[in-house]
Every structure is written in C-alpha cells, then in structure tokens.
Amino acid sequence: MARSDAELVVEALEGDKESFELIVARFQGLVFNIAYHYLGRREEVEDLAQDVFLKVFQTLERYDTARPLKHWIGKIAVNRCLDELRRRKIRRLHLASDLGDEDRKGIEQLMEASSDNRSLTELEAERCLKLLEVSMAELPEKDRMAFVLREVEGQTYPELAAMLEISEVAARIRVSRARKKLQKELERLFDEQS
Amino acid sequence: MSNRRDQRDAGHFLEFLVNSVPRIEAPPFFAAKVANLAQVEIYSFAGSLQLFSRRLVPVFMTLMILVCLAVYRWSTPDPLVESAFFYDEEHLAETITLEYVVDSLAIASDEQNENH
C-alpha cells in the first residue's frame, strides 16, 4: 500500500533516504513543469528543481503535516522561480520589433493550426511556449505565476492560493487580470500580422 | 464588430497556446540523485553542524530562559524577606540585653511609685 505524504515526511525526518526519494519522485513533475512553464527554459529546469528539493529537505522539520505536502513543495518552487525571474530581469520582447521573420512565420502557422484544430509538431509546441513567454513578459510576477499555475498547470484555486500565499479571491483576480492582458497582447499581435 | 471578433479569436488562440505547451519529464534517476545529495549534505561537516545546531536551539533557548529567571530572582529583593526584618533573631539578640531589661524594670517601678 502506498504510504501517505505525512508518513513519508516522518520517515525522511528520521533519516530514511528512500522515503525522501519517494517524496521527490511524487512531486518532481509538478516542480519541473512549474519551472519550465514559468521560466520557459528547459536547460535550467533541472538545476532549479534540484535546488527546490534540497530546500524542501532542509526545511522539512518546519512542515506542518496537517497541510498538503503538495502546497508546501509548490510554495517553495514558486518562490524559487520568482527569485530566478527577478535575478534574470527578463527583457521584454516587443512583438512587433523583436520577432524575426522565422518567428512571424511560426506564429502564422500556429494561428492556422489553432483555427484548423490540428495537432502540433514538437517544434510548434515549443513555439507555443515561447510565444506565451513573450506575451507574459509584461505581466506582474505574481499574475504571471497565477496564470501559469491555473491555466497551464491546471491547479485548483485553493491550491493556487496556498502556493502563492494569497487569498482564493486574490488568486481568481490575478488569473482573470492576467488572462485579459494576454488576450490584449495577442490582439495586438493579430493586428501586426495582418 | 471586427474588434469583438479579434477578442474572440485572441481568447481562442490563448486557450490553444495554453493547451499546446509541451510538458517535460524529470530525467531518469533524478529523485535518487537528489536524495543522495540531501544525504551527503547531512553527513558533510557543515551539514552535520547545521543539523546539530538546529537540534540544540530549543535546549539553548530553555537554558537561556532559566538563566535569565535565576538572575532576575537573585537580583530582585524579596519583599517577604524585607518585611521579615523584625523577626530576625540576630536583631532581637542585639537589642534585648540584660542591661536593657534591668533599665526597663527600673523605669516601670519608678512610674508605679509616681502613680501612688
């Protein structure tokens, strides 16, 4: 029978390496994809995820077993990603001026694919993420994270609120605001393309 | 009209982008690697020092509180002890002497004679 998160935590605190390995295996998908979709760079994700889990291990004693472990690990991952973005100070790409011919052609293909509802190649899927990252560059950090957690990662609003340490209402507001801004950004892109 | 269509298209396109972004998997043995690193961290000198000090913090805090309480207790005079001055045996021994008793009796007998 699968051990519960709380049981694994207790065993890991007693020095059981296998239990900690199981915790990592259970939540690595969450951490990898939050980092990948928020920062948009595949090559940096592994190092960041490693930092997150080492931090989880160092602070495991402070974890309250009455709360879901997913929230605790998600919160650490979110904070690590926010720090990383601040450190990087991502330059905003202006869709009109900064996208090259190749990118524009790629966007056109994506638009066609979206209206035809056809499945995408791997390269096109990567392009979707790039386009999303460029469009999100103007969003405030937490709005951007709220959008990624809710719309891309599919987290519920209570989970989102726990990970971002805000109320559920604030989480809903952030997601809705981000969605509106992104739509405007994409409308602008449509204008530029036509 | 066109603006509304743009909005609808943008909404649809955004949904399409969000649903199409690729997902990634952790590399094989990632969990084992991280668990090993965490273990190494425990057994390294700095790690064990950190763990040791983390466990010592509550003990140290309790000790500090006890020391503070003891210092406070010794440095503040106890009002009960202060008021107990009159019951101090040494004090009584010093003031009630044989001479004092004789003098007191003499004064008392003088006062009695004067009254009569």
Task: Give a quick precis of the structure.
With 194 residues, chain A is mostly helical.
Helical run tally of chain A: 10
The whole-angstrom Rg of chain B is: 44 Å
The CATH architecture category of the largest domain in chain A equals: Orthogonal Bundle
What class, by secondary structure content of chain A? mainly alpha
What is the total domain count of chain A?
2
Helix/strand-derived category of chain B reads mainly alpha
The residue fraction in helices of chain A comes out at: over 70%
Distance between the termini of chain A: 58 Å
Radius of gyration of chain A: 19 Å
Beta-strand content bin of chain A: under 5%
Observed structural traits:
heterodimer, A: mainly alpha, Rna Polymerase Sigma Factor, Chain: A, Arc Repressor Mutant, subunit A, 10 helices, 77% helix, elongated, B: 116 residues, mainly alpha, 6 helices
Account of the protein in words:
The complex is a heterodimer of chains A (194) and B (116). Chain A has 2 domains: 1-90, Rna Polymerase Sigma Factor, Chain: A; 94-194, Winged helix-like DNA-binding domain superfamily/Winged helix DNA-binding domain (Arc Repressor Mutant, subunit A). Chain A has 10 helices and no strands. Chain A has helices at 5-13, 17-39, 42-58, 69-88, 95-98, 101-116, 122-136, 141-152, 157-164, 168-193. Chain A is elongated and about 60 Å long. By secondary structure, chain B is mostly helical. Chain B folds into 2 domains: 1-76, no CATH class; 79-116. Chain B has helices spanning 2-20, 30-43, 45-75, 79-83, 89-95, 98-115. Chain B is elongated and about 125 Å long. The mean pLDDT of chain B is 77. At the A-B interface, helix 2, helix 3, helix 6, helix 7 and helix 10 of A face helix 1 and helix 2 of B.
